[in-house]
Design brief:
The complex is a heterodimer of chains A (87) and B (152). By secondary structure, chain A is an alpha+beta fold. In chain A, 21% of the residues lie in helices and 21% in strands. A 4-stranded mixed β-sheet of chain A has the order 2-1-4-3. Chain A is globular and about 30 Å long. The termini of chain A are far apart. Chain B is an alpha+beta fold and 152 residues long. Chain B has a single domain (3-134), classed as Molybdopterin biosynthesis MoaE subunit (Aldehyde Oxidoreductase, domain 3), CATH 3.90.1170. Helices cover 30% and strands 38% of the residues of chain B. Chain B is built from 3 helices and 8 strands. Chain B has helices at 17-24, 57-75, 106-123; strands spanning 3-9, 31-38, 42-43, 46-55, 80-91, 95-103, 126-132, 137-139. In chain B, strand 7 (126-132) and strand 8 form a beta hairpin. Chain B is globular. The mean pLDDT of chain B is 97. Classes of the chains: A alpha+beta (87), B alpha+beta (152).
Chain lengths: 87, 152
């Protein structure tokens, strides 16, 4: 299955656009997505992003945090939320 | 109306303290507290020329509503609150956040202002990229929203 990940802040370095399409095995959850992102970061040699999968939260379509056990659906659109710091 | 919240696109509009003062004005209130956050010209020994603010718009607005309503419940249900944060490329000296509170008494006005600022920093998905005089730029580290129980 394929999901679309909306990118924010430093995570935008994962793609040339604001969305990263990620291929995952069926029944994957957010924890699996974290592992796939780690692999992508390692393949692209983006050393400064190596902590991103561990430190980021993910928002679902209702703009609320979705947890590691949350099962992703094919074509689902979610957001990666790197550590924040406005003000 | 006792609550005004907004994300302001800096390329289209500037945050205005006059607008904020007008919004919170009320003869019922004996205290007004205003916090203005600005882009400063230095961070960690580096000369800063500007900051780009990025936001997850819908989640930010949702968090602003929740933070301000919590502040009212906690300190003063009748408080008038104005909260705006910028989005986009802000030069040194420009306002990044403005919180204005009108309340019956000074203690509540100060407390609400401080509470909102700290909660925005902890809960609202906004990011800062600093632009330096030497041409470099950097996303600043921040506070993780990942649930603590998931972090090993």
């Amino acid at each position: 299955m394929k999901i679309q990940l909306k990118l924010y802040a430093s995570s935008k370095m994962l793609s040339d656009s604001d969305i990263l399409k990620v291929e995952l095995p069926n029944n994957s959850n957010i924890g699996d997505l974290r592992n796939v992102l780690s692999k992508i970061i390692s393949e692209k040699n983006l050393k400064h992003l190596q902590n991103l999968p561990k430190t980021s939260a993910f928002f679902g379509e209702l703009n609320e945090v979705i947890y590691d056990k949350y099962k992703l659906k094919d074509k689902e659109i979610i957001s990666i939320i790197p550590p924040i710091g406005g003000g | 109306m006792t609550l005004h919240i907004a994300l302001v696109k800096i390329e289209e509009e500037k945050i205005s303290s006059e607008k904020a003062k007008k919004f919170i004005a009320s003869e019922k209130n004996g205290a007004e507290s205003i916090f203005v956050g600005k882009v400063r010209n230095e961070n960690d020994g580096k000369k800063v020329i500007a900051v780009t603010y990025e936001a997850h718009d819908q989640a930010v607005i949702k968090s602003f509503q929740s933070i301000c309503n919590n502040a009212k419940d906690k300190f003063d249900k009748n408080a008038k609150i104005f909260l705006e944060h910028v989005k986009g490329y802000a030069l040194v000296g420009e306002i990044s956040i403005l919180i204005a509170v009108g309340s019956g008494h000074r203690d509540e006005a100060f407390k609400i202002c401080r509470y909102i600022l700290e909660e925005v920093k902890q809960l609202s998905p906004i990011w800062k990229k600093e632009h330096y005089a030497d041409g470099n730029e950097e996303w600043l580290p921040g506070h993780s929203l990942r649930p603590k129980k998931e972090v090993k």
